Amino acid sequence: MKTRSKRISRRVLRIIFTALNNINRNYITLSDLCYLDQVVKINRDYTQELVFCYEFYHQTRKMFDKIMSRSIKNSSLKPIVIQGEVDKRYQNVPARPDFIIHSPGEFGGIAIIEVKRADREIKEIINDLDKMQLIDRKVGGYQLLICLLYTSP
User: Fold this and answer.
1) Would you put residue 36 in left (φ > 0), alpha (ψ -120 to 50) or beta?
2) Fewer beta carbons below 10 Å: N end or C end of the chain?
3) Alpha-carbon distances of 148 from 37, 110, 111, 131, rounded to whole Å
4) How far apart are CA 17 and CA 1, in angstroms?
């Protein structure tokens, strides 16, 4: 990895770590829902993962807006952004990663991120790892493949 790419990767990892530390558990904790004295059945696993992803995106985006804008302001670099659920079929890849971090319009990217609850079955986690490898193999150029495992609040 080139020196500039290493610097960008380290900066992105710091942003991700800080964003994870800034996640507000109040926004990712679900309660049982009651409607007309009946408990509403929801797919809590799926819902919690989505809620976690929304809060992770929010915190990461705040960090990118704050830190990356200063870095890019006085340089020729294109903005680096986080985007969620990007359908990669337009690049002939039958996959939709949870997040990608990249400079839109540039070849390759900085990171592919897949998010899973840590208590999920190992085959689901392996599927996410396979998906990231497929995207990287078909599209190429990603510096980081991140499988983000979290525990429920």
Assistant:
1) left
2) N
3) 37, 15, 12, 14
4) 21
